[in-house]
Design brief:
Amidohydro-rel; binds zinc ion; binds N-carbamoyl-L-aspartate; zinc ion binding; 11 helices; dihydroorotase activity; TIM Barrel; Dihydroorotase_CS; alpha/beta
Length: 344
């Protein structure tokens, strides 16, 4: 199967040795990726984003044409002029909203959307997309309900307050989110879907014992939600596109009394997605999901090149080692998948 080269519209690359270890996997598959800004400290200025983009380019394998698309981490004190300038200069592709304390490295996130109303108005005017980690942080709300409640309490009102704002509802995990996005007819609301949320439901996190490497946020939900996500992805329709949310963490940080959230899918992301589409008899929609819908939403041209996947067994790496001695465990580590990316 040969399709236009895909893009990853939601990716964590980290920095330093980890960046160097994980980036080649993404660069081998994808033409571009939206790079998440939740570093320590977060990427909030044009200068920081330029430096981070340069570090990513430096870490690329020889000859790679992979393009990082940078994002700005939205904080309560965000400066609309700085954000607009970054967009104008082609440094910032989008802005990322983390509700404060919703997920990994979100302590600097927004505590009240009222604090950033001016920034959102400006983004609306200049056509700059807002990417949202869509979970409420109210501790009273059950962790499995946080995404659905976010739609009612935060997302719907936000879309109503800013009728021209382009929004990506990131890494959706519920039927409610898939239905909400599908119901929008304006074309200004998109959603990314990860590979792992198409494969696991919440029971997998506890199969035979607790499996910290399957813990991510938003947490995987019941089977009916996984099936709804698969229907959305394979529909091939406009608002749904590929975003792995590949989020590497050192094994020591995952296998802990308080393990952190994030699933590292980069090594075989395209193989996992291909298998999902093949299982559901929807390979004809794969290119739309992986390579066309995202660029259309962002107003970019699809990639010129192609990639080829063949029906042949491939083993997911057991472990990925960084130069500083840290190890990361890939999703489905050591398992055999039945689609293989042909390396050209
Ligand atoms: N998805 C995750 O569980 N973790 C991400 C943050 C995020 O995308 O929410 C990370 O940076 O590790
Ligand atoms: Zn997130
Ligand atoms: Zn993420």
């Amino acid at each position: 199967m040969t399709i236009r080269r895909p893009d990853d519209w939601h990716l964590h690359l980290r920095e330093g040795a980890m960046l160097k270890a994980v980036l080649p996997y993404t660069a081998a598959q994808f033409g571009r990726a939206i790079i998440m800004p939740n570093l320590k400290p977060p990427v909030t200025t044009v200068e920081q984003a330029k430096r981070y983009a340069a570090a990513i380019r430096d870490a690329l394998p020889e000859g790679s044409t992979f393009q990082p698309l940078m994002t700005c981490y939205l904080t309560d004190g965000a400066d609309a002029d700085e954000i607009a300038r970054g967009h104008e200069e082609g440094v910032f592709t989008a802005v990322k909203l983390y509700p404060a304390h919703a997920t990994t490295n979100s302590a600097h996130g927004v505590t009240d959307l009222g604090n950033v109303a001016g920034v959102l108005e400006r983004m609306e005017r200049i056509g700059m997309p807002l990417l949202i980690h869509g979970e409420v942080t109210d501790p009273e709300v059950d962790i499995f309900d946080r995404e659905a409640v976010f739609i009612e309490r935060v997302l719907s009102p936000l879309l109503a307050r800013h009728p021209g704002l382009k929004v990506v509802f990131e890494h959706i995990t519920t039927e409610e989110a898939a239905d909400f996005v599908a119901a929008d007819t304006s074309g200004r609301l998109g959603a990314t879907i990860t590979a792992h949320h198409l494969v696991i439901n919440r029971s997998h996190i506890f199969a035979g014992g607790i499996r910290p490497h399957l813990y991510c946020l938003p947490i995987a939900k019941r089977e009916r939600h996984r099936l709804a996500l698969r229907r959305a992805a394979i529909s091939g329709t406009g608002p749904f596109f590929l975003g792995t949310d590949s989020a590497p963490h050192a094994v020591t940080a995952k296998e802990s009394a308080c393990g952190c959230a994030g699933v590292f899918t980069a090594p075989t992301a395209m193989e996992v997605y291909a298998q999902v589409f093949a299982e559901d008899g929807a390979l004809d929609q794969f290119e739309a999901f992986a390579s066309l819908n995202g660029p259309r939403f962002y107003g970019l041209a699809p990639n010129e090149g192609t990639i080829t996947l063949e029906r042949a067994p491939v083993t997911v790496p057991e472990i990925v080692l960084a130069e500083d001695g840290e190890a990361v465990l890939p999703f489905q580590s050591g398992e055999t998948l039945n689609w293989r990316l042909k390396t050209s």
